[in-house]
């Protein structure tokens, strides 16, 4: 059983004030992250999402991990009632850990004694299930259960330890480096290092996650054995150390060593979690070849295997990436967790390389995958985020967990419920993705109303107030709220989509700016203002001609938002599949809503659907059809929906 | 254990000479089937396929059911070595039964003492595993195994009995009504009737199959309890008698009663097998409402959920039908067994209603799904029949069963190996799908070189010799080889695709004919000849505009054959995805090969694949690209392939 003995903490390479409030703290990266204590979101889209998370998502998740017995599994372990009383799938422990991580970030963002007490209560129940040698799992290791580490392919044992460690890292980085949770995670990690270390079993977990977690635990503690263990797990993978499964070793990225891989492949969440850990490792070991390999695979994946929403992973059967350019909108999997993992990965690459393309994908994915998953009330969730719904579907029952994945509408909980807890921890730490610093200044990557504060290494002080209604409006005002005679550089990202009409106003002078990074170096005074104006007129977007599934279609985007047509907005049609858009008439804003000019297809006579002549596809009657931001869809009852609209 | 006691056979309603050699013998149908003794295929596409089946497929299947231990399971049962020595999945018994069915038809087509001896040897091994009360399964019912009938959702227990019965029906209808196999099947069926009868358990099997088998066993034996049991199984289904599974009750058609269903849905093989049994039941009970319901669902399915190849079932995850018009060519499942089941169903509907549309789909499916599955040497098979292969893929290893489904190329055997045995029994009985009779004559539905002979009820004799190279050539010569003063009607199907240019020549007079049935009634004399000439110029085919996945594409067909482009025929390209066809230039025949005029797309620069302007998609350099019949693809090593070609 866990005792309250104190495990002494070493000072890690990044275990200083800079680490506070940061999920990721690389030692060598080009950009340094700001933390949740340095960036405060005060309103707007993301501020409201953080409030929703606090108010609705977190209590909802707490309720369901208790109700399903997934938290109770730890009590059952303590009381010797396993496996008889175990509930949930093999990875259910990880949902409790992700809840703890969410609580930890949230407690730092806005302290609250009641939430603090609930956090401690969960930690105590978890800790009480840990065995004397540090082993912690409610699923393996007891009589009647599989032996420890006996199903590395699909058992998720090390994956669960990884999430335990990430929760502990969050707790350590929010002012509690000696917390019970941290000690539990260290003891569990120490055992992992013993069992799988240089003299131990030469294998890996079927679901990557522990790689990144161990690097971060090294950063928190300075214990090199954690870093070394992460390195072993990264380097072993790809050498066919796991058993073959029906989906092939590609499913868990054990098909090809990381340096030889061409592109992300297999199970999408596994692929992006693994790549995130590889970037973490490359940073700490100075392994530029490894970093370059991941960056190359990222570029190939973004160019050929990523949805317009930023979503990754097309296949339902194995929740996996499909081949290049195989991106069906109607059978899109685009798992919420793959979106979150993609944000985690792109953030690490951004820190490492500074390329604004990474921040572009983060923005796209946050607005169009992460924002799409929760319902407006924060109490139901999409597990998958399809880009096209053909049938009205039904509202899932609220009293039982839904079979995973492709429920018609958002469901309160799933039998595999990784996404709600992943959302909760991501939203709680969201401010950390907004800005970075380097030796000469501060970089704003995402635009949200709030404040940014950072002291540079030489003592120059930077304080910013960001005022914006973005993405409802394209104007972003950045007011300097600090005085310093010494100049520093303020950098702003101009999104890749803003290729036409963006301007920057500094000191009363306005100039056009294009996609990429714009930097202004000067001695900033309190009250100085920089205004970035981004072009918010809605626009048509065309797919690469190799994407078969959306040939002949256009999408409509506005700013960072992908838009969609929903049948509840189209009188007289249950299906939006009959609409055909006129690409000669650009989308425009009418009464505050984006509309496109459409006709309706006249369906051919029923019968064999393949004929000698092409069918005529529209009438000459046109109408304005309103669109909604994709992330808002399915909040008004069952509907059909499309992002990609066939053109006449 | 099985004894050699004789179970007395009743004379069934159709247990007469007419039943001989016929897989399906309805009592009331509009058209009466001819049997494998009445129709002989003497060469050409189908004659060669039957030879291939005899020469290669059957020995190959015999080898693999032995090698995998699936046949040995029956020995292990007899010797008390189960479950320790059991091999294969829960439905492996059925592969042995399908092999027996194939052997039974084949022995009738071309008797052979060696094959007969092998048939008997297998039957003896199967029979020895039957328990005293008739129960027969190597998977359930012993200590250490699941209890009998304990997993009706996924256990396939009644499904296996169904295939046992179909094998027995084949044996009974080929001159051996008292065969040991028939007695074994009757005893197994009797037990099913006891356990699941009117006073028994109110449920069904998760995989339909026994419904059709029991109707046919009734037709063979006259035992009404078999018919009544089939009726119970059909009527119970759809009332949620099975437990919910992850894929939903739609997966096994237990979501909606048959009379209320709109379309085939769920697992495609299950759906079409069930519908076949429903037509059989409707025939015997005179239930026109049931028949009309199935026919209505068939029409909807053919109009909205069927590939141009005739393939059914788009989804990989649950091997299921997708929504209307969701027919992705690159993620097409189109399972071989679903194609076979679709032929079985359409044949029953054709007999019941006489509509040539059913024979049209049979032709399309036989040439473009059933013919596609086996390799040219008959020793490897496609489990799924995709319409688009994006990557070259690899040749599956020949020494181990492949993980099911989507192997890159045809594989010798699968862990789930339903398709090779299903092909073997279908090809052995293929002649039965060629022709029918009614009180006034004979109908030819499929065109293959061979002979047809049938005496009509009033004694008029019909003998035909069909000479044709179809589908290599469009001329079908039907020579009458019998004399009778009394007139009778010869009917010929003009395929639905032959809408332009078909002619019929009778008595030296040629006239244009269109799709449907053409009938000639006269007093035929020996030597009279009818010549049907079908238009064989290759043609473009356009998809319904609601099929999103192939928007902007054309296919090329020639006669009943769907054509495809294969990368091995396109110098300098590993992928055929770069080709763009000029739809203004019709496909044409050059040096015996069909070619289309194509340009090659110039891929955009790598990067984010969604842009503000449409990419240009071709150069102005055109070339003739040769096509192959789809069913011949992947016989020349790894290649990429498309049926649907994007148009410039």
The assembly state of the depicted protein chains is homodimer
Report the strand count of chain A: 24
CATH fold field value of the largest domain in chain A: Glycosyltransferase
Q: What's the mean pLDDT score of chain A?
A: 94
Could you name the key traits of this structure?
homodimer; about 650 residues; alpha+beta; Glycosyltransferase; 3 domains; seven-stranded antiparallel sheet; 13 helices; about 30% helix
Write a structural description.
The structure is a homodimer of 648-residue chains. Chain A has 13 helices and 24 strands. Chain A has 648 residues and is of the alpha+beta class. The first copy, chain A, folds into 3 domains: 16-83 and 90-130 and 151-375 and 397-433, Alpha/alpha barrel (Glycosyltransferase), CATH 1.50.10; 435-533, Sandwich (Immunoglobulin-like), CATH 2.60.40.1180; 539-646, no CATH class. In chain A, helix 1 (44-67) packs across helix 3, helix 3 runs antiparallel to helix 4 (113-127) and helix 3 runs parallel beside helix 5 (157-172). Residues 1-15 of chain A have low confidence and may be disordered.
Break the fold down into its secondary structure elements and pairings.
The structure is a homodimer of 648-residue chains.
Chain A: E1 32-33, E2 39-41, H1 44-67, H2 72-78, H3 92-109, H4 113-127, H5 157-172, H6 180-196, H7 210-221, H8 224-236, H9 268-285, H10 288-304, H11 336-353, H12 356-370, E3 388-389, H13 418-428, E4 435-438, E5 441-444, E6 450-455, E7 461-468, E8 475-480, E9 488-494, E10 503-506, E11 509-512, E12 516-522, E13 529-533, E14 539-543, E15 553-558, E16 561-566, E17 579-581, E18 588-590, E19 593-600, E20 610-611, E21 623-626, E22 628-629, E23 641-642, E24 645-646
Parallel strand pairs in A: 5-9
Antiparallel strand pairs in A: 1-4, 2-6, 3-23, 4-5, 6-7, 7-8, 8-13, 9-12, 10-11, 10-13, 14-15, 15-16, 15-24, 16-22, 16-23, 17-19, 18-19, 19-21
């Amino acid at each position: 059983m866990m005792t309250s003995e104190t495990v002494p903490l070493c000072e890690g390479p990044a275990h200083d004030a800079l680490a506070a409030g940061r999920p990721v703290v690389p030692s060598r990266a080009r950009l340094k992250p700001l933390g949740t204590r340095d960036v405060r979101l005060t309103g707007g889209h993301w501020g409201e999402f953080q409030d929703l998370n606090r108010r609705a998502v977190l209590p909802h998740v707490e309720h369901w991990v208790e109700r399903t017995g997934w938290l109770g599994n730890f009590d059952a372990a303590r009381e010797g009632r396993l496996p008889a009383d175990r509930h949930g799938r093999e990875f259910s422990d990880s949902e409790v850990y992700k809840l703890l991580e969410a609580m930890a970030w949230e407690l730092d963002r806005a302290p609250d004694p009641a939430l603090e007490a609930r956090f401690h209560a969960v930690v105590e129940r978890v800790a009480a299930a840990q065995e004397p040698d540090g082993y912690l799992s409610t699923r393996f290791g007891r009589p009647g259960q599989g032996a420890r580490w006996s199903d590395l392919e699909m058992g998720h044992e090390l994956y669960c330890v990884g999430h335990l460690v990430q929760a502990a890292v969050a707790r350590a980085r929010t002012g509690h480096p000696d917390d019970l949770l941290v000690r539990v995670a260290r003891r569990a990690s120490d055992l992992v290092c013993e069992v799988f270390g240089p003299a131990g079993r030469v294998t890996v977990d079927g679901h990557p996650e522990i790689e990144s977690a161990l690097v971060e635990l090294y950063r928190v503690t300075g214990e090199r054995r954690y870093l070394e263990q992460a390195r072993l797990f990264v380097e072993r993978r790809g050498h066919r150390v796991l058993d073959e499964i029906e989906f092939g070793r590609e499913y868990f990225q054990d098909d090809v060593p990381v340096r030889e891989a061409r592109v992300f492949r297999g199970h999408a969440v596994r692929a992006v979690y693994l790549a995130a850990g590889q970037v973490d490792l490359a940073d700490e070991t100075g392994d530029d070849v490894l970093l370059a390999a991941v960056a190359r695979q990222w570029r190939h994946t973004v160019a050929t295997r990523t949805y317009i929403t930023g979503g990754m992973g097309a296949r339902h059967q194995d929740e996996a990436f499909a081949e290049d350019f195989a991106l069906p909108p109607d059978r899109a999997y685009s798992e919420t967790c793959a979106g979150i993992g993609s944000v985690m990965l792109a953030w690490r690459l951004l820190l490492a390389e500074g390329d604004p393309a990474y921040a572009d994908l983060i923005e796209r994915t946050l607005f169009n995958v992460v924002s799409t998953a929760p319902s407006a009330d924060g109490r139901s969730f999409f597990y998958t985020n399809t880009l096209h719904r053909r049938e009205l579907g039904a509202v899932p029952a609220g009293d039982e967990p839904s079979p995973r994945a492709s429920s018609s509408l958002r469901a309160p909980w799933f039998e595999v419920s990784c996404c709600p807890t992943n959302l909760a921890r991501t939203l709680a730490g969201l401010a950390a993705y907004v800005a970075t610093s380097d030796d000469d200044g501060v970089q704003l990557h995402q635009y949200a109303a709030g404040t940014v504060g950072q002291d540079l290494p030489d003592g120059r002080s930077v304080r910013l107030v960001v005022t914006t209604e973005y993405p409802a409006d394209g104007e972003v005002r950045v007011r300097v709220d600090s005085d310093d005679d010494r100049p520093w550089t303020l950098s702003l990202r101009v999104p890749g989509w803003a290729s036409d009409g963006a301007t920057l106003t500094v000191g009363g002078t306005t100039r056009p700016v294009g996609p990429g990074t714009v930097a202004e170096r000067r001695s900033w005074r309190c009250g100085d203002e920089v205004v970035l104006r981004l072009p918010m007129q809605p626009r048509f977007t065309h797919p690469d001609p190799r994407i078969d599934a959306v040939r002949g279609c256009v999408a409509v985007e506005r700013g960072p938002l992908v838009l969609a047509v929903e049948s509840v907005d189209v009188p007289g049609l249950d299906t939006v599949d009959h609409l055909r858009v006129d690409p000669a008439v650009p989308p425009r804003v009418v009464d505050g809503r984006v509309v496109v000019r459409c006709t309706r297809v006249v369906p051919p006579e029923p019968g064999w659907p393949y004929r000698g002549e092409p069918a005529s596809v529209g009438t000459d009657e046109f109408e304005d059809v309103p669109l909604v931001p994709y992330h808002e869809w399915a909040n008004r009852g069952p509907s059909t929906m499309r992002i990609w609209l066939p053109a006449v």
